[in-house]
Each structure stands twice: as structure tokens, then as C-alpha cells.
Amino acid sequence: MANDKTPTLAHRTQYAALRTLIGTLRMAGWNTATAVGEAVGRLGYSPLGIRRDLVEEALRRCFPEFNEERVRAVARASYGHLGRVTIEATLLSGGPEEVFERFEPCADWPVVEAALAEGKGICMVTGHFGNWELAGSYVGARLTAMGSGLDAIVRSQSNPLFERYINRTRERLGMIVVPDAEAVRRTPRSLRAGRAVAFVMDQGVIGLASTFVPFFGRLAKTPRGPAVFALRFHAPVVFAAAIRQPSGKYRLRLERVPVNPTGDREYDVDMIVHDYTATLERFVRATPEQYFWQHRRWKHAPPAGTVWPPVRSAGVAAE
User: Which of 13, 51, 125, 183 has the fewest CB atoms found within 10 Å of its own CB?
Assistant: First the structure.
């Protein structure tokens, strides 16, 4: 669904500049264009210093074993990675084959096939790690080829012209774009139809139903929608991440997240949220330079009295 906000002159100017840049980079070729994106991204670390203190402090707290040299190296690399994935997301203009060319063979795809075979749809979760846009494009294209499809729950962007551009690319590759404000209404219908629904689950958003679970040892506000839908519709949960390899291509990693109802709905939701957050943390620990550290992940403080692990309600019998 398109962003209906009327574009301003500033939006049009930004979009025209972006399209000119994309056209120039596309003519230069994928490898050159993404290398330029990485170089530009690194400028955000130095000399511009955009959120540099935030990124370095997060790395120190999450990886206390890192010395200062390692902190700075990972921080610098994360800016380069962000610049690269931003360009990669904007360069896609063809069909599924163009996406598949950017990936190594996916040994984990049977995880999706097995989940889909249950006939309950799939709640797919990911984070701002690796290249989340390419991950969605790959999964959407491959599910469409199987006669299914992928709904992508997305947040609105500030520039409606750029949002429409990105959404057209997503839809061409097999995704149905669902604004997050419509997720509650549309996700049940998609799961009943046996479709996969993708959620990016590592940003605490005001007004979005969330729970606080540990992420690198600190409680972080985390969306609970995927867990709620999984329990309500008995849908499997699959974590996905497209991780850049030394070859320059991506490897799509897919893992089943356990859903074990106990009869205590709030407790069960919290545990599912915990498990998919722990899965993300495990991947980030292995490749920290591919995480979006520029986001204020721990911006929201938990309510007073929040404890972890959660306490099960007394007298609730297991299902």
C-alpha cells in the first residue's frame, strides 16, 4: 500500500537526487556501486561522527571483552555495512533471478518448507542485521514460486516518494507490503491462507505492543506481535537473516523458533519473544559488524518492577 502523504518540494528534491544517484551507480555495476555505498557509509563514522559515541558505547557494553581498537574497528565496519546494504536495497530493479544471484545456495530452506507444510502460515521474524531487505526479497520470491507468498509488515518512511519506490520493488519480488498500522487486521487473514508474514522485531516503537526481554544482558523493548499471532493461530515461527559472506554474496540462515504453549498466554508470549531475540543476539555475536548499532536499541526503560524471567501465573495448567 502506498504512502498517501502528499510529497513536499523537499521530498521531490531528495527523491530526484536519489534516483539520479541510483541510475549512476547502476551503470557502474553492482560491485562498484556497493563498494561506493560502503565508502560513503564509513564517512558517517569518520569524519562525520554520526551517532559514533552511541555505537561505540553499545559495543563496549555488549562486548566487554573487546579492547578499544576492536570497538573502533567493528563500529567503523558497521557504518560501511549500513552504507552497502542501503545501496543494495535501492539497486534491485529486476525479478527474482537478480535476487537469487546475490545469494549462496540456501541449505536451510527445508526449514521453511517444513513450516509451510503445516498449513498454518508462518510468522517470520528478523532484525536489522545482515541485509534484511534482501532476505525479504529472497524469501518472497521463493515462496511465490512455490505458490505461496510473503507479507512484509513495514513502517512508513518520511519520504513518500522513496517509500513508493521501495515498495514497488518489494511487490515485484513477491512481497505484499502491509503498513504496521494494518498488521493486526491483515495478519490473521494471511496466516489462515497459509502465507508467511515477516516482522522486523528489534526496535521498540511507541504504541506498538511490546515486552521487555534481555538483549545482550539488558532488557530491551521488543515487539510481541509475532508471538501473539503464533500462539493464536498455531503458526510456526521462523527466524531469518541474510548474512554477507567473504565471497560478497549473502547466505540466508533460517531457524525454527520454539513455540511451547503452557496455558499461560502472557508467559508464553514473553518466552517466544525472548527466544527469537536470543536467536538474533547469537547471530549478532558471531558477526557484530553487520548489525544496525546506530539504532537506540535500549532507549526505552522497562516499567518499574519488570523482572526476568517472567513468573508464570499460579494455577495455570499446561495445555
Answer: 13
